[in-house]
Amino acid sequence: MASKIDICNRALLKIGQPPIMSVDDYSPTAQLCLQEFDAALEATLRSYPWPFAMKRMELARRTDKPAFGPAFYYSLPADLVRLVEVFTGGLKYQVEGTAIATNADAVAVRYVSKDIPVGTIDAQTSDVIAIVLAGRLAISITENTQLKDMLYAEAQQMLAQARNTWAVEDYPQEPIEGIWIESRSASNSTSFFNNHWNPWGPDGKGVIGG
Q1: Residue 83 and residue 172: Cα distance in Å, rounded?
Q2: For every residue of 46-71, which 3-state class applies, written as one string?
Q3: Which among 185, 167, 157 has a CA at the least distance from the CA of 48?
Q4: How many CB atoms are located within 10 Å of the residue 5 CB?
Q5: For residues 73 and 95, what is the distance between their CA atoms, to the nearest angstrom?
Q6: Neighbours of 67 (CB within 10 A)
Q7: Which of 161, 113, 152, 112 is nearest to 132 (CA)?
């Protein structure tokens, strides 16, 4: 399993930069790696419901309530990067900011967490993170947009391969059909995010969006 320094050095190698000894030293390159690593990790985690990052949680009901419509707010987990399943006992729900609005008396979720040890990430997925990180570092270090575009294409290919590997080990996820969802059964799964993945975005710094 890879460490943070391993992933950073693989990313640096991709853009023709020398390796660093530690992400905690004060060299400009190490500081950039430290600055961009979490964003690259989160962008990768949001791109697919990775089983190694999956968690389950019963949500806490908030004291404040929606101004109209649903009766309750339930707080989403602070470490959530992708919502995979919502269990409301068959009642409708809506994601609003960092909460779920619903009439359900209890809510539980399955979700992808960003709070995972880097050492638990498999080699194939850590390669994807390294490529995403390399693309972000290419903008800051080399200002080479052509290199960034090449790395983006490579990231897409590697992500597809990693998804195929995990797909045989996890039940297929059902995409979300709209902002309001009927929870048809506890075995069905719904994704809060769509499948369009752009690890850098229009500003070259990484977004996930439609």
Answers
A1: 14
A2: HCCCCHHHEEEEECCECCCCCCCCCC
A3: 167
A4: 18
A5: 9
A6: 5
A7: 152
CB atoms within 10 A of CB 197: 18
What integer is the mean pLDDT of 93-118? 96
- Cα distance between residue 65 and residue 73, in whole Å: 6
Closest CA to 70 of 31, 36, 99, 49: 99
Indicate the average pLDDT of the chain. 80
Entry field: residues in the chain? 210
Joined tokens for residue 193:
């995010």
Q: How far apart are CA 57 and CA 4, in angstroms?
A: 27
Is the torsion defined by CA of 112, 113, 117, 118 positive or negative? positive
pTM above 0.85, yes or no: no
Tokens of 147: 């290199």
